[in-house]
Amino acid sequence: MSDTSKLLADRRVLVTGSARGLGLAFATAIAEAGATVAMADILRDVLDDSVAALQARGLQVCGFPLDMADPASIESCATAAIARLGGLDGLVNNAAITNSGGRSSQQLEIDMWDMVMQVNVRGTWLMTNACLPALRASGNGAIVNLASDTPLWGATNLLAYVASKGAVIGMTRSLAREEGPNNITVNAIAPGLTKVEATEYVPAQRYQHYQDGRALQRLQVPDDVTGAVLFALSGLSRFITGQVLAVNGGFVMN
Predict the structure, then answer these.
(1) Where exactly are the structural domains of the chain?
(2) Residue by residue, what is the 3-state secondary structure of the chain?
(3) Considering the domain 12-247, what is its CATH architecture?
(4) Catalytic: 161?
(5) Model-level pTM?
(6) For residue range 85-139, what is the model confidence (pLDDT) as tens digits?
């Protein structure tokens, strides 16, 4: 990757779900680009280890507990992170759960559906609301919502997750119009199936389905997605808002 060491200099960014996987890759790349990063996750021990490892490299990161199913936890996390950072210029809404993988619509349980919606949709909404005052005060705030390419092509046997990420895309567009007057950009990144801890359950045939359908026919890894997030947080994208960027090697082209 080209040198991005100053791309986000002096920016203050909160990344949810950043103890491992894609979220950790985002937090790492954002810190390497010069930002100070608040990392938040429900996996406290894993988060502590990840924060310590990045701090040992001299990167400016700090960690905060977060349960996206608990409105009080969301509020306290945002408040503590903003206070520690001294403000907020960027929010990466990455935290999400899948929980519905491998089940048809009729096999989904109501409690499972509700939990996916609570975390992925309501949680993203509430975290955004908690951060909006600080992002408005920034004067050039940026919100990056992690969607998925699954609602773009209609992935099967993943209905609750697909529906939740479709909702995130709709929220992205609506909020972009609401917050445009406050000079806040709101965009969604829609990765394809990426090899991380959270996708270890995915059958090999699904990985092969993606790989066969991509214009770039190889496995997708976290570093394939970080550039799009850096771009959406940076000054390079200040006139881009309300957009959905599919990052999936050309599996979906829109």
Answers:
(1) 12-247
(2) CCCCCCCCCCCEEEEECCCCHHHHHHHHHHHHCCCEEEEEECCHHHHHHHHHHHHHCCCCEEEEECCCCCHHHHHHHHHHHHHHHCCCCEEEECCCCCCCCCECHHHCCHHHHHHHHHHHHHHHHHHHHHHHHHHHHHCCCEEEEECCCHHHHCCCCEHHHHHHHHHHHHHHHHHHHHHHHHCCEEEEEEECCECCHHHCCCCHHHHHHHHHHCCCCCCECCHHHHHHHHHHHCHHHCCCCCCEEEECCCCCCC
(3) 3-Layer(aba) Sandwich (3.40)
(4) yes
(5) 0.96
(6) 999 999 999 999 998 888 999 999 999 999 999 999 999 999 999 999 999 999 9
